[in-house]
Amino acid sequence: MKKYTFALSFLLVVLILTLTQSFSGDQHGTKSPTGAPAGHTGSPGDAKNCTVCHGGTATPISGILTSNVPPTGYLAGETYDFTVALSGAGRKGFQASPQNVAGALLGTLIAGQGNQVVGFNKYVTHTAASNAATATWNFQWTAPTTPGTGDVTMYIAGVISQPNVRLSSLLLNENYNVGIDEREAGVARIYPNPGSGSLFLDMNLKNQGMLKAEVFTLSGQKANFSLEQQIQEGNSNISLNHNLSPGTYILRLSTPDGQSNRKLVVL
């Protein structure tokens, strides 16, 4: 009986040590080898980072997160590529999230190879810690579809062999002034802007089809104005009569050739 008890106790100790090693990693590992728990990007909304589990002190750093969002800013509804790169000895992992200062998710995350979306689709993190000298992960982000969301910050926390925690962020400004390309969307001119009462569109379309015009406030609320009209290919002039209150808005134009977002100032 004593031998059986000793053997059982020994197996339990081995099992506990194995689980501890599996979930905690060693001095060259990460405590979350299959993905970080949600809410640890170091953003103001999260108010915590990977040091909660890994210890040490988080060090701000630049260059570990890059994207193809142009300097002019992101366009509503467009999808962009992001790359995480962590260099150094030991296992590495990361977590990123697009948020405002209140911690609200902005846009949609799309996981790539070697990473996953977690936390009610609010965070993207590794699926397996990497031992590569330079570990890279790629994921995508689709900007909010409604114009007027404003600036978005992509927050990221990375671990390079615990307790080496790195924090970084990318500020993603919204591009209010142009759409995908106004020329590609067939919009030659919008005038008067600033103006009041009436707005005119000079169009030069490659394709005939439906023109749809919508107006949004800068807070993303849809204004009481919309237009749907069949339009022919080639040159045309469209009149938009509105009763918008004075202020600044986003005019979204969807044409057979593409889409354009333009800042609209009503006097």
Report on this model:
It is a single chain. This protein has 267 residues and is mainly β. It contains two helices and 17 strands. The protein has helices spanning 2-24, 51-54, and strands spanning 58-60, 65-67, 79-87, 92-99, 108-110, 115-118, 123-126, 134-142, 152-160, 165-172, 187-191, 198-205, 209-217, 222-231, 234-241, 247-255, 258-266. A hairpin with a 6-residue loop joins strand 11 and strand 12 (198-205). The chain starts with a helix and ends with a strand. Residues 10-29 have low confidence and may be disordered.
Summarize the structure.
The chain is mainly β. The protein has helices spanning 2-24, 51-54, and strands at residues 58-60, 65-67, 79-87, 92-99, 108-110, 115-118, 123-126, 134-142, 152-160, 165-172, 187-191, 198-205, 209-217, 222-231, 234-241, 247-255, 258-266. The radius of gyration is 25 Å and the shape is elongated.
